[in-house]
Amino acid sequence: MIDFSILPVYLTAVIALLLIPGPDMLLIASSSLSYGKKVGVFASLGNATSGVLLTLLAAMGVSALIAMNPIALEVLRIMGGAYLLKMGWDCMRTEPSDAPKVEQQKGLAKTLYRRAVISNLLNPKALIFFVMFLPQFVSTQSTATSGEQMLVLGLLLNVLGLLFNLFLVTTVGSLGKSLLKNEKFRTYQHKVMGLVFFVLAIWLLASQVPTPSL
């Protein structure tokens, strides 16, 4: 399906990208620190789910059509920023008495999964990334079509990204284990996540989204 001669270069590029701090890493790390490993795992799965969906759109050429439309990108950016601001506001207005107990983590994990999926799909930079990054590694030496190659490359990227994020969850979740037993911290854990969502919203709304020339 892909030209294996380019695989070492592709894997090197993917690893380098995974090590660069970004919004996804911030959301997953904060979820793990504030609510525990289980919630962090679900946030990671949400990120991977959105990545698979973006890969499918890129392979079908749909993402390229959207990325070439400045208005569509601007709408996505505003919608994504507004969604993150709403999540931040919801967290900030949550009463301390609503801090989740350990046995309530399941419902919270599902919520973070859904938020991770939606926030990433509404991030135009994520869409443009797939449009600009994956085609660089499509080979004319392969018998597979460019769409098929992008699908395989994108899925490989998402698998490696999920493994990296799960490692991040394990590391950060272990550091935050003692915090979850601290009643004072648990009182403010929603505020911490609210601040993270506000930071992500500002990050997205203040950024300039380039339009790729295809």
From TrEMBL:
<dbReference type="InterPro" id="IPR001123">
    <property type="entry name" value="LeuE-type"/>
</dbReference>
<dbReference type="GO" id="GO:0005886">
    <property type="term" value="C:plasma membrane"/>
</dbReference>
<keyword id="KW-1003">Cell membrane</keyword>
<feature type="transmembrane region" description="Helical">
    <location>
        <begin position="6"/>
        <end position="27"/>
    </location>
</feature>
<keyword id="KW-1133">Transmembrane helix</keyword>
<dbReference type="Pfam" id="PF01810">
    <property type="entry name" value="LysE"/>
</dbReference>
<feature type="transmembrane region" description="Helical">
    <location>
        <begin position="116"/>
        <end position="138"/>
    </location>
</feature>
<keyword id="KW-0812">Transmembrane</keyword>
<feature type="transmembrane region" description="Helical">
    <location>
        <begin position="192"/>
        <end position="209"/>
    </location>
</feature>
<protein>
    <submittedName>
        <fullName>Lysine transporter LysE</fullName>
    </submittedName>
</protein>
<feature type="transmembrane region" description="Helical">
    <location>
        <begin position="150"/>
        <end position="172"/>
    </location>
</feature>
<keyword id="KW-0472">Membrane</keyword>
<dbReference type="GO" id="GO:0015171">
    <property type="term" value="F:amino acid transmembrane transporter activity"/>
</dbReference>
